[in-house]
Design goal:
The chain has 4 helices and no strands. By secondary structure, it is mainly alpha-helical. The relative contact order is 0.10.
Length: about 80
């Protein structure tokens, strides 16, 4: 659960690298942000995208631009 991850700053071991990377960027850039859960019925485009229903998201928001995400390559156990 992403909301819980950011609000608690605690993650499962397999997700720690994501949390640490985001926290490093946020601290370095002096960013202040909050994470809230918004039900899919009130956030239709995000709900469609999270389910990979890109065609439905584009019907709701025709000017939406969708880009492929390439996650960073992280070597498990390597010091950063």
């Amino acid at each position: 659960n992403t909301v819980q991850l950011f609000n608690s700053l605690a993650a499962m071991p397999s997700m720690n690298w994501i949390l640490l990377g985001v926290v490093d960027m946020v601290l370095e850039a002096d960013i202040d942000f909050r994470v809230f859960h918004i039900p899919g019925s009130h956030n239709v485009v995000a709900d469609h995208l999270s389910r990979l229903w890109n065609d439905l998201a584009l019907k709701v928001e025709p000017d939406l631009r969708i880009y492929a995400f390439q996650p960073p390559q992280v070597t498990l156990g390597a010091a950063q």
